[in-house]
Amino acid sequence: MAKYLMAVDAGTGSVRAVIFSLSGEQVGCVQEEWTHKEDPRWPGSMDFDWAHNWQLASGCVRGVLAKTGIAPGEIAAVSTTCMREGILLYDKAGQEIWACANVDARSDAQVGELIGRYPGLEQEIYQKSGQTYALGALPRILWVRDNLPEIYEKTAAVGMFNDWLIYKLTGKLAVEPSNGSTTGIMDLKSRSWLPEIAARCGLRADIFPPVVECGSLFAEVSAEGAADTGLAEGTPVVVGGGDCQLGTLGVGAYKANQAAVFGGSFWQYEFNTDSAKTDPGCRVRVNCHAVPNLWQYEALAFKPGLVMRWFRDGFCQLEIEQAKAQGTDPYVLMDEQARKVPAGSYGMQCCFSDRMNFIHWKHASPTFTNFMLEPEKYNRYTFYRAILENTALILRSHIELVKEATGHEPEELIFAGGASKSPLWSQIVADVTGKPVKVPVVKEATALGAAILAGVGVGLYPSLEEAVAQTVQWDRTFTPDAANRAVYDALYENWKQLYPAQLALSEAGVTRSMWAAPGL
Q1: Sequence-ordered list of residues with C-beta below 8 angstroms from that of 213, at least 6 positions apart, any chain
Q2: 19 forms bridges with which residues in the sheet?
Q3: Which has the closest alpha carbon to 166: 184, 179, 151, 156?
Q4: Domain chopping of the chain, boundaries
Q5: What does pTM read for this prediction?
Q6: Which CATH superfamily does the domain covering 304-406+481-507 fall into?
Q7: How many CB atoms lie within 10 A of CB 28?
Q8: What is the rounded CA–CA span in Å between residue 131 and residue 283?
Q9: Angle at which helices 330-338 and 317-326 pack, to 10 degrees?
Q10: Torsion sign (Cα): 395, 352, 279, 244
Q11: pLDDT digits over 55-80, tens only?
């Protein structure tokens, strides 16, 4: 009897194949890093190399089967997940002909044209789809039309990366609503395409594949897919979803008014709601959940994990060398020292990502401020702790933002992703937000969410509720420290004044923005 589930997860910085037992234990994982290069002809571009990246993805599947010694026939089902927003275009023969990754920002001119020619259309699109032009597919496909007309004319279908993985495994293409809704061309309420929106923007309306709901048993591994991956031909393939939606499943957040925080390269605050209503101010994103009749308000903090990597590699060479010698992670050593710095980092603060403003999404120049020339206090560990605290302050602002839009906030937070491996960061999140923070045993919850959907899709679990009960386990809960909370209350009020001042300098062109949406 087949007794394992497999997830294939195409993230921003890597692709992995993960095998889980039916109890949710991660049995094996093989991961390969990948990069999405900028085409020097097109500033802001983020190309996706589908040929090379499929070699990496299929190699991960072969690798995890070999590493674990699990026979292909023991895999009961496979599902897929990925970064959202990335899109692929296919021709009539089903061949990939163009692709870009998630934060591709080459379409400045197209966004400017849309705003100029169709005033108010972006707000109208948002109210129907929960998306703006910032990360959506509309400007990107318009860019292809304007700059690569021969590709545009050949385009027969558009799809997302998780759907592409299934297509490579099975030869069948469909789009599911959790990731498809990030295109800005899908209706939140009906969870189906809005081809009339594409037509209004001057795009063809005949390039949208069928929509299949998340968790549906969709197809089987084909002979070609089996040859590429080592999976058994005929293995069931279940429709997956976007990374954050499946991550919330992987931490047991599948009901309305639950919330999860995923701390990785980007930090996502996901709040579940049983209403498809959007924010009147168009400030926060709304996506379809991977569960029917459920949606998610999503507030994104840009690049906290990348900021940590930059700081580690730029300033913590000593800890990197010590970690190699001790067989541990440099972040563990940095946390040990940062724990000695008092809450509030002696008043020092930094600015990286702003509170989300989806309709005008721009970030200030990276900044550290309010430190003194006292090395015994303001050393690299103080700067490091300030980064941890700053990310938690952004999260607090996002909880408030979503509450303004929905009238609700969660009683507790579920914290997953790479950042949740840090007890210090987890405690800071609890102290800054004033909420209990639950950390699951499986920190990389996205792949587990895909495995849960795979198991439900082939009937190994009688229901989603039972699947979550069998697979999701808790590591520990962090409770807020009242004294630290008082310090962070004051720090938060400072940050709310500091960031707009820094952003104004960026808007005026005095400093360079960390990131700006196309058209800004």
Answers
A1: 176, 177, 191, 239, 292
A2: 6, 28
A3: 179
A4: 304-406+481-507
A5: 0.91
A6: ATPase, nucleotide binding domain (3.30.420.40)
A7: 18
A8: 10
A9: 120
A10: negative
A11: 999 999 999 999 999 999 999 999 99
